[in-house]
Amino acid sequence: MNDIILKRGFASDNNSGVHPAVIEELVSVNRGHVVGYGGDPFTEKAYTMLRKELGSEAEIFFVFTGTAANVLGLAGAARSWNSVLTASTAHIEGDECGAPEKFAGCKVLTVDTPDGKIRPELLKRHMHGFDFEHHSQPAVISISQATEMGTVYTVDEIKALAGYAHSYNMLLHMDGARLANAAVSLGLPFRAFTTDAGVDILSFGGTKNGMMYGEAVCFLRPGIISGFKFLRKQGMQLASKMRFIAAQYIAYLTDDLWKECAAHSNTMAKELEKRLREIGGVTITQKVESNGIFIIMPPEVAERISKEYFFYSWNEQLSEYRLMTSWDTTSDDVNQFADLLAIMMSEKK
Fold it and tell me: Does the N-terminal peptide bond of residue 146 adopt cis geometry, omega within 30 degrees of 0?
């Protein structure tokens, strides 16, 4: 029995464990021999379940990581002379170590947004040079749902971006690392704000919401791309024992486990928001629409409390910090953190 006890913190929903139902499904498929590389009945079942959520025409490919899902999805849609337009806060810009440029070979061009959400008018500065060989050719608009700022695109906002992209013969890509949190926030099924809203390529993640690992690259309508299975193999993302990725999606989509986990983490974020608003000297900088909270507090207080509850700095100049709740965050976690922060803030006065 492992006697290491780690405190639940607010650094990242990546830091949480794996939901017991996912573990049980992994154990369930861990018997006998099946065909490798996705030719097994578990992978086919998972694909069928995902198509039920996204549409019967969706083409789905499992990969190991969120970075791989984003980068390979973009690589399939963009050539080396193309550019991908995204928010300056996007994961593909700030947290993937230049992987889109290295593996897709294309440029990533950014726009600054006040809340992490791109709007068509913000993209106009990049929409030029079409068919001009001296200029990289815009090919994809990439958005995150929920965004890295914890905000959530409405269906109408996504439709507007999809229409804008398609009017220029571009594609709309969605980084769905926290797709479930967005679905709960909107009160909508996945398809309503992906396939039906005009999204072309979706990275469908669950690692931040109770799964162990594995992501799905989803092409939501026919003819978007050809030969992706070869690109996945070249990208070193073809799992030999793919049933263990598939099993997690089977558990995740059965009886709406995804919704249960995301609803809980979103609720915990709202509880934390309520407690933080009661503490003088602490400012919440973004709408709390999913499971992320951004706050400004004195740096010396942040340094002290982070020794008890680790979290990340978001903007050092503003002394802004990111707090993330998870599927296993408890009300006790929220209250103990808030109580400690309140004490530290009062001591500073």
Answer: yes
